[in-house]
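Q: Protein A?
A:
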Amino acid sequence: MELFKNTQIDFLGKQKIFLAVSFVLLAIGIGSWAAKGGLKYGIDFTGGANISVRFASRPPIDRIRSAISARIPGEISVQEVTGENEVIIGLPLKEDVALQRERQTVVETLASTFGEKTDRLDLNNASAQQLAERLRDPLQRAAIPMNDEQLTQLARRIFEFRNSPPRSGVLAGFDQLKEVEGVTPQILEVIRQQCYLAPFTIRSAEVIGPKIGAEMRNKAVLAVLYALAGMLVYLALRFEFVYGLAAVIAVFHDVIITLGFFSLTDKEISLNVVAALLTLVGYSMNDTIVVFDRIRETLKLSRRELTRAIVNDSINQTLSRTVLTSGLTLISALALWLFGGPVLNGFAFALVVGVIVGTYSSIFIASPILIFWHDRFQKGKRAAAPAAK
């Protein structure tokens, strides 16, 4: 399928305009980095804690943020998980001991804000062992015969029922326990008397120390640089060194502009974003190789030296393939960005920006660099050869 047939667009004739656009985007992005003191790294790279909390109904974001900020200093992030009654609470960089202590502070803050001030057991945040120990004496006083093994099994079944979908850790009412095997009306009444149901539960808590975060950040930078170096070697062997250099410069341009958009929009750089950047490196490089491959084929058939006309013709011949491939990829990335939720938001945003910038650079950055190198150095060498003789 071809969207464009026999196009004769003078891409290189407009290179000054697009090079100016690139320069402006790079300047704005780097300026934003400088003004904000660098990129905004996520907990993966700076260290901190991510606590996932599920609520029985839609969580009150502002109330959660204000309650936790009153007890823990620093910037607290509260992200709502789209389509779920769940939030991810992010705590800033601290020492390892402090992070563990503040994780407990978050749990206590949520309990005091949304829980019940009572000595009863919170069934939504209790373990099976805590539940069994809590029910042992009251069941005996209620003349309900049950040995330790039976009580342990009952508590385990209640625990598994609470954590299974669609409850996922949060019981909305005690009547739901009627579905649990072994829960009789008498036992249910004892559970009502000894327990209460907080409207939330702690799903998970991930703590990353500052040293580990810094090490991960350095490894992420090296991963991107190694990928670029590997691409340079590959293209130098497959084509010529100048082809590899042009492609690597174009991809480096894509990465910097993408990171500039992250700085402008105050989005965090996480491990997911690094994965997206590595994907972008491969995608953009592939797009550039398609154009370079057509240039090489044309040079072999025509047996002429590299000219602007050959480069323009090669770009026009691959234009349909470029637009179709990039367009379909962009649609997928947009869907992921819009509907993928906060966990994949940074990854998808990097792909959306990267696909657009990568397609643009393979035409308006990589190819002009190729022509510039040829005009500046190759023609100069050929002109100098007769004079030397």
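Q: Protein B?
A:
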Amino acid sequence: MRRKDVTYRVYFFVVMAFLLGVAPLAVAASTTEAVARPDAWWQERNAAVNERVKEGNVDMLLIGDSITHGWDGKGKPVWDEYYANRNAVNMGFSGDRTQHVLWRLENGHLEGISPKLAMIMIGTNNHRDNTAEEIAAGVKAIVAKLRATLPDMRILLLGIFPRTDVEEDIQWRLEEATAMFATAASDDPKVEFLDIGGIFLDKNGELMVEDTMPDKLHPNQRGYELWAHAVEPTVARLLGETKWTPLFNGNDLTGWRQMGGAQDTWGAENGQLYTDGEGGGWLATTRAFSDFELDLEFNVPAGGNSGVFVRATDSGNPAYEGLEIQVLDDYAPEYAELKPWQYCGSVYSLIAPSQRVSKPAGEWQKMYIRYEGSKIQVKLNDAVIVDGDIADFKERASEHPGVLRTSGFIGLQNHGSRLDYRNLRIRELPLPGN
């Protein structure tokens, strides 16, 4: 399955259905009217969740269907690592649709508690009986219910995960629904939308079935690891935690994906993330970030060259579609003619460092990047060398569109030489109005 703009396809099916005089979907139960399910196991699970809620000490809710329910199964080891110590309650029920979630929220799930955060991922089970508009309306109704009942709680609303166990028109419908309910976060500072579906896709945009979703719908343990890793910086911020979150686990490329390139040149060993050899693409985080602080260490060999991309897109040259913070051995003879905006630590082609503080090739060096709104700061080896405003370069947007971007991927550049990175970590900054 490829994650791409599907609006024109949905529009085509709706128009054709109208011209042929048939309804694109059968009339179905409302997605916004609360309905209980009669299944004995469902009633028992509902009672168990309500009993847990009555105990109090609830800081986080995970609300959804079987995909969320799976935190009790394949995702349990990951749950124990990320959520067990956060007083989290799993409110995922297999097979639930939006109307079933609404009933649960109205019948005990929210009584007497004051959680800090709810993470919602729901809607996929409405896929056959409801239009994209109806699915989106159901998700928005859930958000509205939570906001009305728990006005101080923050909400992390996730896009519907990709799936390939259904026909393509249904896959498109779910993507269209996600685009529609994402607007629930537009005007409410307590609600944030995050689409992490890309974590389950390979560099060609296809679902990694064997690695993450063996049945083409439900994550395996690896899938839950990717999910938790992707949302962790946002979860930590929304819970009011000030901790830094690792972007690299020191063991493998969890949370990263190579973009382009004829060769696979990225790997992990001895706690280091490295690239080696020519013909490789750049390495990108599997989710986008807006405002953040990024901390890392790098080791560049003699004559080595690389860069850190921020707010990059998944197509085109990330140095211009986003921004590049230069990483290279700028004292090497082959770089004797460098322009100031090419020195190590510069915002490539835009802002030169105020001083040159890079260490000799072969030594570990520290880099810190803070990007908030249009303001960017770069520290190299604890010295502030860039403190500028990217808004000053708006007139260069035609050649450097990255100056206008407000979010995007963080990435690392392969430039043909060996480059080692370690201790990569991030801390998200509150969005404007939050």
